[in-house]
UniProtKB/TrEMBL annotation:
It comes from Hemibagrus guttatus. This is J domain-containing protein. It is found in: Nucleus. Residues 218-274 form the J domain. Belongs to the small GTPase superfamily. Rab family. GO terms for molecular function: GTP binding; GTPase activity. It comes from the Eukaryota. Pfam families: DnaJ (PF00226), Ras (PF00071). GO terms for cellular component: nucleus. The keyword Glycosyltransferase does not apply. Gene3D superfamilies: DnaJ domain, P-loop containing nucleotide triphosphate hydrolases. PANTHER family: RAS-RELATED PROTEIN RAB (PTHR47977). SUPFAM superfamilies: Chaperone J-domain, P-loop containing nucleoside triphosphate hydrolases.
Length: 274
């Protein structure tokens, strides 16, 4: 074959992408990448200093993908020094938290905010594939953030969610496969990721309501009525929530538990209202 034709064909098929890892210090970002690239796990904590950079090649369908991985330090100390430079031009972001540390889950929002700020006017979050790793699922006894809570956070933003363990390898190759395949799809479709509301099958209102119910302080708060509300007010609030969250209608993660909690809250309030 003519070498130029061959070269053109190879160029069309090969793709270069940049992905970055984000999340608090010590959640397991480097170990997840090491597990995938080197098939091993290092139990000793070696904090990433600034940024680690690596390259790997993967095959997605008929394309060869050259992946540049920038593994960020989670420690705030490194922020000013290096981290802010490296958000630019990424096609994929691996967001990691430790299921045994609630603050690392809560921090995901601020990681996204920081990224948006740093990217400034050129921020186009629609052209980036995000995956969320709920990591260290092997340490079941210390787990404090359950699957439905993590999944809801991720999927309500249009991000894929994976339960992972860099230690056992659980979920790691599935996560990377889905991640690279979504990035390839996005690149092949003009650089835009699919509309999340269409693909996830539940609304932002449903997701926000489940989150609100989870963090409510008592039954009044859960139903969204003032303490001392009448039976009618309680029933009205209950009906609205029941329609929104009924398991037959709502597929959002955690909707079944939220629905049960609302039923119980109504029952206990009605018992005490004359
Ligand atoms: P920074 O580079 O400081 O931002 O941390 P990091 O997020 O890269 O964390 P790292 O991968 O270095 O892992 C931190 C510690 O958690 C290490 O002691 C790892 O051995 C441990 N660790 C990482 N992943 C897992 C996991 O899935 N299960 C368990 N049990 N330990 C893990
Ligand atoms: Mg690291």
């Amino acid at each position: 074959m003519d070498t130029n034709v061959q070269k053109r064909r190879e160029n069309k098929k090969s793709l270069r992408i940049k992905v970055i890892s984000l999340g608090n210090a010590e959640v397991g970002k480097s170990c997840i990448i090491k597990r995938y690239c080197e098939k091993r796990f290092v139990p000793k904590y070696l904090a990433t200093i600034g940024i680690d950079y690596g390259v790997t090649k993967v095959q997605v369908r008929d394309r060869e993908i050259k992946v540049n991985i920038f593994d960020m330090a989670g420690h705030p100390f490194f922020y000013e020094v290096v981290r802010n430079e490296f958000y630019k031009d990424s096609q994929g972001v691996i967001l990691v938290y430790d299921v045994g540390l609630r603050e690392s889950f809560d921090a995901l929002d601020s990681w996204l905010t920081e990224m948006k700020q740093e990217m400034g006017s050129q921020a186009n979050m629609e052209s980036i594939i995000f995956v969320v790793c709920a990591n260290k699922v092997d340490l079941t006894k210390r787990r404090v953030v359950d699957e439905s809570e993590g999944r809801l956070w991720a999927e309500s933003r249009g991000f894929q969610y994976f339960e992972t363990s860099a230690q056992s390898g659980e979920g790691i190759s599935e996560m990377f496969q889905a991640f690279f395949s979504s990035i390839t799809d996005m690149c092949e479709n003009g650089g835009k990721r699919p509309n999340p509301e269409v693909s996830i099958g539940f609304t932002k209102e449903q997701a926000d309501t489940i989150r609100r119910i989870r963090s409510s302080k008592d039954s009044w708060d859960m139903l969204g009525v003032k303490p001392g509300a009448t039976r009618e007010e309680v029933n009205k609030a209950y009906r609205k929530l029941a329609v929104l969250l009924h398991p037959d209608k709502c597929v959002a993660p955690g909707s079944e538990d939220a629905f049960k909690a609302v039923v119980n809250a109504r029952t206990s309030l009605l018992k005490n209202i004359k």
